[in-house]
Structure to design on (450 residues):
């Protein structure tokens, strides 16, 4: 097999791990790519020793992605196609991943996981952080009253948030009172940058109370939610209609209208 | 078209907002409709957006509220605008450009169906089926387009008024997640 097609150069490396991104499948099934002949279901080995395996059109896809010029990434893909932050940071493929906001193609940058991003994957933690941010000097008891969670679990989550530096105790007595720190983390993936901010965390927290936000994240992932937040900012600023978002993001206008209505309070704060 | 002194065009942005999560906002919309001496209308494009969308199954939007309103008669679906009317056609084209430029977009992301409300508002004013028209939308560029463009066809500013949902009924501005207000 010849060298990888320049247009498809450099994606992932793998070792029998699983990824389910339709975009990845589309690229790997591109018959015009000399490096990937056939229907993409065979194993291919490039001159750089990287191979690609696709299993089935509808089932999980095993891929080996080439990291051109980079140290091969050995992190394993999760069973739902999630990749580690480190893998993403090294992957030249992510400019394509970041566009993946449709349907189940949500194994994208912000879904990467990793310790720094656990806050994004745990809506209850996101809720606690956001609640503390909106209500300075919050106690664990205050949080327990707003969430249907055991006090022990809330203590654990608050400890985690404190350990990560997202909240800190703001008094010296008991009960402990907590105040939130602003979060501004940057995830740089190829040419794509995602910011993890209190606004994004609040949007995730709303999954607990707003089934429409939850459904949207299920369909479009956290990257999709981050994109929707950008549209919500434009919407509140008066730049776009919900139909413009629908057309640009290939959503139904109803879906765009739903998520803009749900996220509007987040960006209006 | 039947005559009405005051016509309110309700956009899908407001109907979607009102239909979410149990429809409490829709009840407020219905209450306001009963209390105001106005004919509430939706365009065919808006009706298509809020009824029969497959996404309805995934989200909490209840399209049955729109159907009930249509059955009760306080909300009606209009005919499409008269595209062959030069003024109607031109105002819709201008609205398309207006909305696109508001977001620094190209015109192709705004379709003619998106501007039906503006075309119909002008048409009803021109053929005297309405003396006043209000556009009820949360989409700022659409509301601005209606208020900006229609007076340029010889109508007074008070004959075309844009309301957002929250301006129409305070319940439409309530945050479902009160803990974060």
């Amino acid at each position: 097999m010849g060298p990888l097609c320049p247009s498809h150069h450099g994606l992932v490396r793998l070792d029998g791990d699983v990824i389910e991104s339709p975009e990845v499948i589309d690229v790997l099934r591109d018959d015009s790519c000399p490096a990937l002949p056939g229907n993409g279901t065979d194993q291919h080995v490039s001159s750089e020793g990287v191979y690609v395996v696709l299993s089935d059109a509808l089932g999980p896809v095993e891929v080996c992605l080439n990291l051109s010029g980079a140290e091969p990434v050995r992190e394993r893909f999760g069973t739902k196609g999630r990749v580690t932050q480190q893998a993403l940071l090294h992957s030249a493929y992510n400019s394509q991943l970041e566009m993946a906001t449709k349907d189940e193609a949500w194994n994208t940058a912000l879904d990467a996981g990793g310790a720094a991003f656990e806050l994004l994957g745990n809506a209850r933690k996101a809720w606690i952080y956001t609640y503390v941010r909106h209500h300075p000097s919050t106690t664990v008891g205050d949080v327990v009253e707003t969430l249907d969670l055991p006090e022990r679990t809330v203590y654990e989550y608050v400890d985690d948030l404190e350990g990560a530096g997202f909240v800190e105790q703001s008094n010296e007595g008991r009960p402990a009172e907590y105040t939130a720190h602003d979060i501004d983390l940057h995830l740089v993936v190829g040419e794509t940058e995602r910011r993890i901010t209190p606004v994004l965390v609040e949007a995730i927290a709303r999954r607990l109370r707003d089934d429409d936000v939850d459904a949207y994240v299920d369909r479009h992932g956290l990257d999709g939610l981050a994109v929707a937040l950008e549209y919500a900012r434009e919407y509140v600023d008066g730049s776009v209609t919900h139909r413009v978002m629908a057309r640009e993001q290939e959503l139904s206008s109803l879906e765009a209208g739903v998520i803009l209505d749900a996220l509007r309070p987040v960006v209006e704060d | 078209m039947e005559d009405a002194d005051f016509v309110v065009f309700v956009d899908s942005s407001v109907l979607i907002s009102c239909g979410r999560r149990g429809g409490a906002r829709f009840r407020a919309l219905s209450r306001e409709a009963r209390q105001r001496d106005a004919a509430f209308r939706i365009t065919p494009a808006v009706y298509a957006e809020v009824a029969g969308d497959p996404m309805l199954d995934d989200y909490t939007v209840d399209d049955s509220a729109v159907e009930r309103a249509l059955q009760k008669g306080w909300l009606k679906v209009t005919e499409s605008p008269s595209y062959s009317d030069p003024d109607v056609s031109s105002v819709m084209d201008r609205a398309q450009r207006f909305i696109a430029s508001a977001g620094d977009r190209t015109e192709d992301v705004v379709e003619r169906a998106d501007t039906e409300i503006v075309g119909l508002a002008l048409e009803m004013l021109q053929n005297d089926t309405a003396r006043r028209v209000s556009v009820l939308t949360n989409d700022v560029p659409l509301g601005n387009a209606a208020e900006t463009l229609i007076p340029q066809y010889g109508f007074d500013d008070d004959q075309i008024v844009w309301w957002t949902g929250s301006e129409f009924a305070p319940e439409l501005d309530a945050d479902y997640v009160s803990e974060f207000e």
About this structure: The first helix of chain B runs from residue 12 to 19. The interface with chain A takes residues 12-13, 16-17, 20-21, 49-50, 53-56, 58-61, 99, 102-105, 109-111, 114, 138-142, 144, 175-177, 179-181 of chain B (CB under 8 Å). The first strand of chain B starts at residue 4 and ends at 10. The mean pLDDT of chain B is 93.
